Structures are given as C-alpha cells and as structure tokens.
Amino acid sequence: MRRYGKHTDEDDIRSRPNRRGNRPRTHIRPKHEDAAEGMVLTVDRGRLTCLVDGRPIMAMKARELGRKAAVVGDQVALVGDLSGKKDTLARIVRIEERSSVLRRTADDDDPYERVVVANADQLAIVTALADPEPRPRLIDRCLVAAYDGGLDPLLVLTKSDLAPADELLELYGALDIPYVVTSRDELETGDAADRVRTFLDGRVTAFVGHSGVGKTTLVNALVPKERRRVTGQVNAVTGRGRHTTTSALALPLAGGDGWVVDTPGVRSFGLAHIDPSRVIHAFPDLEPGTEGCPRACGHDEPDCALDAWVAAGHADPARLYSLRRLLSTRERTEGD
C-alpha cells in the first residue's frame, strides 16, 4: 500500500472520476437576490399557497432551508414559476425575519412548540358566554401566548343573548383589553362583524377560540367571498363544539386593508414554551418593580419585589393579581 510522504505532488494524489458528471457539492448557498416577495396564506401537506403580486401561487419549501418551516403570515422570497397557473410550483428560498409569533404546545408537558401564525399584530380571542360555557383558564392561556409573542389581545364575546357578559368582563377589567360583545342575531345580520371590523382595519388579526363559539361564523361575515364551512353544532354530552376549521388560513378583510387569520378550534393551549420573564413586558406599570426581584423570580414568591412596588402605590393591586393569575395558568388545566 502506497503512503504519501511530506513532500507530495498533486500528481501523486489519486482521485476518483465522478461518473454522473454532477457538479461538486458546496456549502455556499445562492442569495436569490431576484426572488419575488410573497406572503404565506395557508399550508396543506407540504404545499404552501402564497400571495405574490396579488395572485395566489402554489409553492414548496426549498431543501436548503433545512428544517425551518414557513407558516401562515410569513413573508417569504420565491423563485421558479410564479405565473400561478394550474399544476405549476414555485419554490420558497427564504423566510424573512418575523415581527411576532403566536405559538402553542399540545399541552404543558409537550416540549415541541408549534408556530400557529407569524407576523400578526393582534389576537382576537373568541369566547361564547354560554353554549358552550366560557373557559377563563383558556382565555388566560391565550392572553399569555399573545403577550409572549408580541400580539395585542382583543376579546370577542359571543351569544350575549344567552348570558350576560358583566362577570367575565370584570375578571379582565384590570388588563384594559379591548372587547366586543355580540349576540347570535348580530352574527347572522352582520352587525357583529361591523363592530369587530373597527378593530381590524390595517392590522393582521389571528382568531382563536374553542369549537362552537361562533368563530368561523364571524370570520365568514368579515370575509364573505371566502366562506368556510360552518356546522354550528355543540356536542350535547361534552358541551364542546365540533371542529369546522382544519387549517389556518389568511383572508383579506372585506372593505378594509387588514387580514383575518382563521385558525382551527382549540381544546387546549399548552404553554410549555413560555418564558414567564417575557410576559411581564405586557405590564409596563409593573415591569420597573421587578428590578429588585431575586434572580429567576417567578413573581409569585415571598421575596418578589412587586409586592413592595404595589404597596408603595406605583401600580394597581388588581394589575398584580391579574399578572399572577396569568402566570399561574401553566399549573392549571383549562377546565378549572
């Protein structure tokens, strides 16, 4: 067996010819400076529908992106066939930096987080006041996810003809969350959509809520050209609705310049991915008081500095109670 010494010539190095004639692999990726800009509207089994120059384009993710996945709301760069014609397929080669991310896990023990929507400005939490009964713990979890992801929350309470909204609104009064209260008749006549629309113009709003609360009915009223299937049924045994939306979909707001993102109905909203230190950013009146907190303070401990901060009159005690109630949702189940 021949061994090469210290002073080898390139002629001494044996090389195997490439029978396939392929170019050698390189780690240098193309920049795709001429790629078109687009927005992801929906994702279905590896195929992504994107809006490019006002027309829908079917695309797939480029292999060079690795395991990084594009989600609804992502701003992306595409190359390939951008005609939008039938049986054509473009390629997503870049996912732009996200301004916000709404994430959830299947439950609090699941380490795998799922990005629901990217680049949304607002999270509309749709809850029925009855049939099915409201679940405050689920609302709390959605609020925590909104604050953590950089989205402004909006409460949309439906079916006010079946139960009053006062008690639920009082629970969230200290958080100063904007809200809209609607009835079943208003959903059918479109009056509910008109009032909700005033909070949506010029914004990207993701709608979340468990099944049977009227979320998809409301979305249909907001974007009548893109109606989604509605059953309106609530299981008589469990008191919960049946899913009518199976995938997230971004839709242009009718009569405005905003976007509505309809998401599948949720029955749980895991917060395993949430860092409690990020939730405090949504409480600017309390955040300065954390400077005296011990390291890694959970803000619900005997030596938490927020107690002294509130006692000194710097913030409303109801605000501290609301913060701690939200942070405690990871230790509770949604049905509590």
Features:
alpha/beta, 6-stranded mixed β-sheet
Structure characterization notes:
This protein is an alpha/beta fold and 336 residues long. It is 18% helix and 22% strand. The chain is built from eight helices and 13 strands. The protein has helices at 136-149, 166-171, 184-189, 191-197, 215-222, 276-279, 306-311, 317-327, and strands spanning 36-44, 47-52, 55-61, 75-80, 90-95, 101-104, 114-118, 122-128, 152-158, 179-181, 204-208, 249-252, 259-262. Strands 10-9-8-11-13-12 form a six-stranded mixed sheet. A five-stranded mixed barrel has the order 1-2-3-5-4. Strand 1 and strand 2 (47-52) form a beta hairpin. It starts with 35 loop residues before the first strand and ends in a 9-residue tail after the last helix.
Give a concise summary.
The chain has 336 residues and is of the alpha/beta class. 18% of the residues lie in helices and 22% in strands. Helix 4 (191-197) crosses helix 5.
Uncertain runs are 229-245
Shape: globular
Strand segment count: 13
Q: Which structural class fits the helix and strand makeup?
A: alpha/beta
- Specify the number of helices: 8
- List the secondary-structure elements in sequence, H or E: EEEEEEEEHEHEHHEHEEHHH
Residue share in β-strands: 15-25%
- The helical percent reads 10-25%
Report the end-to-end length measured between terminal Cα atoms: 75 Å
Instruction: Give the overall average pLDDT.
Output: 84
Radius of gyration: 25 Å
Largest sheet: 6 strands, mixed
Strand order of the largest sheet: 10-9-8-11-13-12
